[in-house]
Amino acid sequence: MSQLEICLKQIEAIKGQFQADSASSKAQLSIKVVEDLRIKYLGRKGLVTSLMESLKTLSKEEKPAAGKVINELRQGVEAGLESLKVEADASALDASLSQYKLDISLPTQNLQGSLHPVTLMRRVMLTEFRKLGFTVYDGPEIDLDFYNFEALNFKEDHPARDMQDTFFVADRVATILRTHTSNIQIHAMMHEKAPMRVVAPGRTYRCDSDITHTPMFHQIEGFVVDKNISMGDMKGIVDRFLKQIFGQDLSIRLRPSFFPFVEPGAEFDLQCVKCRGAGCRICKATGWLEIGGLGMIHPNVFEKLGMDSEEYTGFAFGFGIDRIAMLRYGLADLRQLFEGDQQFLSQFPIQP
Ligand code: DAH
Questions:
Q1: Which residue lies with its CA nearest to atom 12 of ligand 1?
Q2: Same domain, yes or no, for 92 and 208?
Q3: Given this model, what pLDDT does residue 171 score?
Q4: What total number of domains does the chain contain?
Q5: Which of the four pLDDT bands, split at 50, 70 and 90, describes residue 215?
Q6: Cβ(320) to ligand 1 under 6 A?
Q7: pTM, to two decimals
Q8: Residue 149 CB contacts under 8 Å (≥ 6 apart), including other chains
Q9: Which domain holds residue 16?
Q10: Is the dihedral of CA 9, 12, 16, 18 positive or negative?
Q11: Residue 222 CA: which ligand 1 atom is closest?
């Protein structure tokens, strides 16, 4: 047998072996199996590569013919490996997809949406205030120091400014995220004429975060300006409102307190909604729950806005909507309100 014949026989054998190998690889096809085959045939010491070595043993005349057949074999092996690789990639994708148990053809569990408890609570509150003759006002969440502090009689460098850990809008000392909804008092009084009965709900911001504080929270502010408004009117309105929300048997009480924009100022408490005043874990055995602040509008606030503080009097109050929602719906943790958990949220109705 000539060297050429020996070489052609080898080529034929390797071709047959590759066909057998690629057929049997299909039983357990993977990217690794295909790579192993590539090394076996086309690697540096691979079967096809080593055929090049045997070319050297051939005569000058024999080389072109044998070289051509070896090249055809190499191309055949490359094409075979390529199609195996396509198959391996597809089955790897199938395997990874079948790990996700997601059937997008299933109908959703909860077809009906619901109102967020804070939205729900806000709507209930506004309905009650409208019944008492109040107009609903909206105001900016990004505001000037003037509306949030200065016009509300917070003196520059007064520690009360530090009590409300303020977020400043970058590089602009005078522009802040409002720390309370009391800024609405100023906006409304600059645009409306007395007599006024206004409530304004909205988001407020303080640099504060723990179990009972979130950096964003909701407040509702209310105020009345007219002639001859007394503290009795104030107490009557707040008392009536809270009874509508929590039940007629609960009383309120006022405790003297300081807020720069009211004089006298007070914090107001509601008898505990859980134990109805007897003392329990929620009210820390006091029988009372802190709800918010209120007071008679400070003459300086009127004067700053060019109103005659001898002619007009008024009262203002403010409290947290989130806290009222927690008490009203019996929620354990303030943060539940802001986690967006579908199971939690879907317990609430779609309408107040
Ligand atoms: N703005 C006060 C705060 O966020 C709450 C407050 C207190 C509002 C007294 C009032 C008020 O209208 O009269 O701490």
A1: 317
A2: no
A3: 67
A4: 2
A5: very high
A6: no
A7: 0.69
A8: 161
A9: 3-99
A10: positive
A11: 12
